[in-house]
Amino acid sequence: MTATVAFAQNKTISGGPYFGCKDPKVDDKITKMMVQNDEQAWKKMLLSAVMVGECRLWKDGESVYLEEAGWVRHCLRPAGDVSCFWTPMEAIRGSK
Q1: What is the model's pTM?
Q2: Could you give the CA distance from residue 58 to residue 66 in angstroms, rounded to a whole number?
Q3: Is the pLDDT confidence value at 5 over 90?
């Protein structure tokens, strides 16, 4: 369940490393591999997804806009970009 934010709120990435994906199912699959400690698999999938623009890595201090808020993750849009990426909610300052 998500809630659309009426006006995209300006936020900042805090710490990390964090990644986000356009499709929450891709994010779920990579996260599952991480939980399973299958480092080779999740790194391969994440690198592939980043290369085609499906996922991205966030930098500490990066400016983002909160487009949609979820219970566990938010869809964040990088400043100057048109797509948002589902990212763990703890990646942004002031989200708790």
Answers
A1: 0.83
A2: 14
A3: no
In this prediction, residues 67-75 reach a mean pLDDT of 90
2-6, 13-17, 25-29: range with highest mean pLDDT: 25-29
Q: Which residues of 33-48 are buried (b: 16+ CB within 10 A; e: fewer)?
A: beeeeeeeebeebbee
